[in-house]
Design a protein that fits this description.
Elements: H1 7-23, H2 30-39, H3 44-51, H4 56-67, H5 72-78, H6 83-94, H7 122-137, H8 145-155, H9 159-166, H10 171-182
């Protein structure tokens, strides 16, 4: 499937992983795919959202409000929660390492999981799969950034679609406008 991706769409999928890492999230979700689409400011599909007032900075603030960022420890410290004291208390009851991460899963290769790349959530995988269906429906010979956005919108349950809807945009109307913009 990924051989059908345009260079821009491949770049967007990679950017989704970077967005996740920059926000300190342990996954790549539809929200990160949306942020990656919005980085492609020259893309006609991204322009639909940008012209409606949902640019990368605004979407990133929305994702931060919904999921927080990796700086949660600093936020907790600012209200007097000492995470090290919490760790010590938990380990005194449940044993050393009780809060440690579970052992890593066996490494899998591919776009959805590989060394150094955050795992894609089920909604994000579905959105990428739907981007292929959108490409086929539109009789395109490739998967472009716009198809990724259409996949995020069509999936509809992930945070990417929620960010768009919370911005006051109608998902069906955005889909229509993206399709028109893509020709």
């Amino acid at each position: 499937m990924f051989e059908r991706f345009t260079e821009e769409a491949r770049r967007a999928v990679g950017q989704a992983g970077r967005e996740s890492a920059e926000l300190g999230h342990g996954h790549v979700g539809t929200e990160h795919l949306l942020l990656a689409v919005l980085v492609e400011t020259a893309d006609p599909a991204a322009r639909v959202l940008i012209e409606a007032g949902l640019d990368h900075a605004e979407a990133r603030r929305a994702v931060g409000r919904l999921l927080g960022t990796g700086g949660d420890a600093q936020a907790l410290a600012s209200i007097g929660v000492d995470l090290e004291a919490v760790r010590e208390a938990v380990e005194s009851v449940f044993g050393a390492g009780a809060l440690d991460s579970p052992p890593p899963e066996p490494r899998r290769r591919g776009w959805f999981r590989s060394e150094g790349r955050s795992p894609f959530t089920a909604p994000a995988r579905k959105a990428v799969e739907l981007s292929l269906r959108e490409s086929l429906r539109m009789k395109s010979g490739h998967i472009a950034v716009g198809h990724l956005l259409l996949g995020v919108l069509r999936e509809g349950e992930g945070l990417g679609a929620r960010v768009v809807a919370d911005h006051g945009l109608d998902l069906a109307e955005v889909r229509r406008e993206v399709e028109v913009a893509m020709g």
